[in-house]
Fold:
Amino acid sequence: MADIKTFHLPDLGEGLPDATIVEWHVKEGDYIKLDAPLCSMETAKAVVDVPSPYTGTVKKLHGAPGDIIETGAALADFEPDANAKQRAEAESTGHHHGPKKAETPAPAPAPAKAATADREDEGTVVGAMVSGNTVHVEQAASIGGVKAVPAVRALAKKLKVDLARVRPTGADGVVTMKDVKDAAANGSATLGAAPARAVPASAGRHLAPELPEPGAAPSRTAVSLAGKAVRTAPPSVQASGQPEQLKGVRRNMARVMAEAHANVVPTTLVDDADLHAWIGKQDITARLIRAIVAACKAVPALNAWFDGKNLTRTLHPHVDIGIAVDTEDGLFVPALRNADVLDGAGIRAAIKRLRTSVEDRSIPASELSGYTISLSNFGMFAGRYATPVVVPPTVAIIGAGKLCHDVVAVMGGIEVHRRMPISLTFDHRAATGGEAARFLKALLDDLSAPN
Structure:
């Protein structure tokens, strides 16, 4: 009897609970070598390639592109090649493999039914979910006559491909990842290039009976034909959109924000930095980071980590600033390391490097954690003041609003000054109001310096 080995999804980040299959690089029956790319997985951090833990034949793939696989759940089955060199203890590669169990010895695999019974109620979910080692495959949803899983739709959006004009090759007319990539490569389905292909008349007949061709749509009014106010149904009765389960970056963002909301006591102070004394053109972001460094040196209490369970505080001698970067996939917060020893040119070069690696999803997980304080420069889009979210274990986050010109009272009259709105949110368990106010003053004072 063949010796079949099951490879469980390792922890691809720092305690990430799951990942989404983007693409398999092999199919069942293929022969693969040790450390060759097995599949691409999207995590909360980035899209990463998972290497094969064996040299041998792929017997089974547990999931399809778009499926969410829980860390520790079965990912693929292999029949190792007895004549090939294998890694010692192939399933131990420095990551956690195998189903997660709290402080218990590794038991023999239990039947899927029993594993499901041992799990707590997982609630109602939309799309793929994992129970024990069983992956429930997410069904391709039909929207606008096009069948595709959410991951394929996300890829099409990213590559600016019109799904309605992509030729599907998947079973039952489903558009696959390869279909989207091929369309992007040959330019046959560019968004807005030409009218979308017509949906066959038979499409969607199982959802509703055929109706005669409608005439011109009546104009929408606030009252009915009887002269009464038109009432709309509450959201719980009917939804016009297609619900899709959050994946990857957005999925992790939802978890992080919920955890922060539950575990932080946030308080926000706001004020305006007066930039009227600036001489010549200056790098606003570099000045803002320099001001944060100055404030951290003046009041170290906000450049810290706080452990709410053990009530311990760690003050940092260095300043690593988490820079919030907004993308279509969700929010990334890469760390600008050693900001306290960088000059303006070094800051600009480091930020450019971080933004580029975020945009092409090549940034390593190590650069998305460990920062000591955060910055959200939301003012580059809109907004003056905000209550940005403090993410544990950090203690504070600075929000920079949109630059504006304000009328300012001065001795002998009024002047128009350029000012930057600043919001400081801090965890009041770890810092006092006085410390936060002194921190904000130090930041404003540095920003107001001529250069």
Summary: The chain is about 20% helix and 25% strand. Residues 90-139, 196-211 have pLDDT under 50 and may be disordered.
